[in-house]
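REVIEWER CHECKLIST
Item 1: Sequence provided? yes
Item 2: Single chain? yes
Item 3: Sequence as submitted:
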Amino acid sequence: MIWKIILLLPCFTVLVNAGCERSSLNTPNSPNPQTQTVDPIPYETYDQWANSLPAYNVTDWTSLKPTPRDDDRRATRKALVKSRCPRRLVTPLLEKSAIQNWPAYLKNDTGYDITVLRNLNFRRIPNAPILIVAPLDNLSKDPSVDPPGLIFVLERLL
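Item 4: Structure as written out by the authors:
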């Protein structure tokens, strides 16, 4: 009798699972389509994307990360994609997130020059503590910001 149960158990599992939806199966190798996210369609131009971002006035620079960690960079990449940043600009912007890749006028002997930062115009990446300095917002600044702009990663935004 036991050998019949052992023999028929795999058949029973197949029959039970055949009536289930694929998304309700809890197997680690099968992705759940309800939890997968599709990246939004990026804007065609940089200006369209930058203009879609809200302006932001920075009042607290103490949480600025001059050298973002790898997990910060991954989160920044994800936030840029979700904000519909043109794909060709994601990597160049990420490279500009580290202080060693900032223009010389933003740096001083102790790190970053807060007086220069206070004079720039910023836009915020939604749902992330990330700011962008867009060239189109800083054309009248001396010196101006070169394309594709700069990314600043912060721990938090107030």
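Item 5: Key structural point noted by reviewer: The beta strands are 55-56, 107-108, 111-112, 122-125, 130-133, 150-153.
Item 6: Recommendation: ____
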